[in-house]
Amino acid sequence: MTRLAVRALLAVVFWPSLFFFWFLGPFVFLLLSTTSSEVCPRLETRSEFLAAANGALPMLAVQSLVYAVPILCLALWERLLPEPARARHIVTCVKLFAVTIVIGALWAYGSSLMCDGYGQAFFSPLWQWTSYLPLVNIAISVPLYVLTFSLGRTYSTREQVSAGDAAQPDQTVS
Known about the structure:
Blueprint: H1 3-35, H2 46-55, H3 57-67, H4 69-80, H5 84-111, H6 133-156
Helix pairs in contact: 1-4, 1-6, 4-5, 4-6, 5-6
């Protein structure tokens, strides 16, 4: 498989995953989180709350893996076409992505521990501060989205095709 074909395959994975997972995904998860408020009145004990919050951890892990697809594509593109300047940008993307994952997990986990169904704080009031984490996450995600989009665009453009990557004319053997 030639480098050009691998680059094209990465582009086919990168762009839909960037659009559907990163741009539409947060809206879907926001809708799911606002409709899950019916769970609070059904939980009465601290152990039930912890079980519900801990039950969300595997979903958070899967969500993080799905969101990592564009970052993985960027890392693979860098392996195909190494360039130090872009490598530093990809490292920045990975760091920003890691921060957004941690903040998102804290928000999702913390928001599941805030209510007890009777209006009482079930755990430390510190968990109520997690309601501000989506704003922090947005402030970090915007530069991450812009950087990832621009890197994806530079990696998937045809201008990057070198003479060695260009398709050779078919030569038939007689």
